[in-house]
Amino acid sequence: MSNSVQIGDRRVGDDEPCFMVAEMGINHNGDLSLVQKLIAGAVAAGADAVKLQKRTVDVVYSSEELERLRESPFGTTNGDLKRGLEFDEDEFIAIDQYCRMYGVAWFASCWDEASVDFIEQFDPPCYKIASASLTDDDLLRHHRRYGRPIILSTGMSELEEIDHAIDVLGTDNLVVLHATSTYPSQAAELNLRAIRMLFERYGVPVGYSGHEVGLATSVAARALGACMIERHITLDRAMWGSDQAASVEPLGFQRLVKDVRAVEEALGDGVKVVYDSELPVREKLRRVGLKPLAAVR
Fold this sequence. Notes:
Number of domains: 1
Order of helices and strands: EEEHEHHEEHHEHEHEHEHEHEHHH
Strand content: 15-25%
Distance between the termini: 49 Å
CATH superfamily: Aldolase class I
Number of helices: 13
Helix content: 25-40%
Radius of gyration: 22 Å
CATH class: Alpha Beta
Strand order of the largest sheet: 7-4-3-12-11-10-9-8
Largest sheet: 8 strands, parallel
CATH topology: TIM Barrel
Structural class: alpha/beta
């Protein structure tokens, strides 16, 4: 077990600056020009990394699910939507080039083994395992074949399921994310105290993947010990797409980064001292000649 993990050129864990991840998810709506704008917005906001998703549609979804009627800009079935949101190799090469141009790390959550193999060609600093994949033992083991750090999201999962997933993955180079898998999540269901519980239970770095509206609860997650914060980023929360309303626009992400950094500075080291800046205030306001309480007794 370790209280920090090396992800790219960053240490992620206790006593390290919070690792701020801008999750593009499917908010790009399958449009490379939107991807570049999202990357630019994330970098300007101070994100340490951006994240995408990768699926082999015909593996992840059943034929019945793909044939289900669902209106979207891509067609009339759920399959039309899922395929429209996926990027091919040339498009991922372009995304990799965008990230290099903007000087930001990127990685992906891969929903099937072939997608892991595909993303590996880009030398990602880590992989994320989505909450939906936490019980897929074969996929967990396949990720570990490449020896990269793993970020495990725990939304919609019982403790016994998380225990099992960590038994499969091991605790080396592992970061666990507390999450609630509703979009958007209600404040009463965020259960931020679970961040500390997960750390005490597994002894690995614990972060937070938030899907709520607003920023205050994500900032609170940092105060409660989250070493990584992931929020979905969008150019406009009113855009078409199922995740847009639970996302943060670039200016909001910038505010989130600023507030998280302020909290980090304010947390201090826990040692109670009198600061030099307090001395003239103490000299001015304390009554002279009062005996310490212990002496009075």
